[in-house]
Amino acid sequence: MPLEAGLLEILACPACHAPLKERDAELICTAQDCGLAYPVRDGIPVLLVDEARRPA
Ligand SMILES: [Zn+2]
């Protein structure tokens, strides 16, 4: 299920406030030194640092 149009533009990483990009049902922080990946569950982005996947 695609995210609501325009939603990505207002979302920011809660850890560093960089913009996010959607990839493989996750929202990836675009900051190179952050890069946290936030899950999207049932079309709802879960923007919690505790829920985010750390970059490899
Ligand atoms: Zn970030």
Give a topology summary:
Elements: H1 7-10, E1 20-23, E2 26-29, E3 37-41, E4 44-45
Antiparallel strand pairs: 1-2, 2-3, 3-4
The chain binds zinc ion.
Description:
It is a single chain. With 56 residues, the protein is mostly beta strands. It has one helix spanning 7-10; strands at residues 20-23, 26-29, 37-41, 44-45. β1 and β2 (26-29) form a beta hairpin. The protein has a four-stranded antiparallel β-sheet with strand order 1-2-3-4, with no helix packed on it. The protein has a single domain (5-51), classed as N-terminal domain of TfIIb. It is globular, with a radius of gyration of 10 Å. The model has no long low-confidence stretch (mean pLDDT 90). It contains one helix and four strands, in the order αββββ. Zinc ion binds next to loops.
* Uncertain stretches of 5 or more adjacent residues: none
CATH topology title: N-terminal domain of TfIIb
Bound molecules: zinc ion
- Fraction in beta strands: 25-35%
- The rounded Rg comes to 10 Å
CATH architectural grouping: Single Sheet
Query: What's the arrangement of strands in the largest beta sheet?
Result: 1-2-3-4
First-residue to last-residue Cα separation: 26 Å
Estimate the mean pLDDT confidence: 90
The rough form would be described as globular
Largest sheet: 4 strands, antiparallel
Q: How many H/I helices?
A: 1
SSE sequence, one letter per element: HEEEE
Number of domains: 1
CATH class: Mainly Beta
Derived from helix and strand composition plus strand pairing, the structural class reads mainly beta
Residue share in helix: under 10%
Query: What's the count of strands?
Result: 4
